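debug: dumping io for the single-chain case to check the tokenizer round-trip. Nothing else runs in this session.
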Amino acid sequence: MIQPGDTRTYVKHVTAADFARFEDGLVHAICSTFSLAQAAEWAGRLFVLELKAEDEEGIGTRLIINHKAPAFEGEEVVIVATLEKYEGNEVVCSYTAKVGDRLVADGKTGQKILKKEKLAKILAPKQV
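debug: decoded output
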């Protein structure tokens, strides 16, 4: 049974695809905040994958990321998500992202587990 304090780990291998780029080009050749955020959400989603039923799916509700240090191409970022709360259909995790002992980022993620049918209605394009 999953309970607060449990952890799940995801290892992200930093590649050039993770670099910070915008329409005006490359910003810097390190793992972007966006890429770290996506990896943090995935680490929290590992809990959702265990908790949801076949007719359910998770949807993100919050993401807090404090980007503290760089992660370079070729490095492995280890993201450890810690379950803070699982109440009703809400899953809240804190996480750390590290390369060795170097803290790259920390923060919080939130997801809700909803019936796929309900989620499809919520996410359907609105007819105007």
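debug: round-trip ok. The two ends are 45 Å apart (CA to CA).
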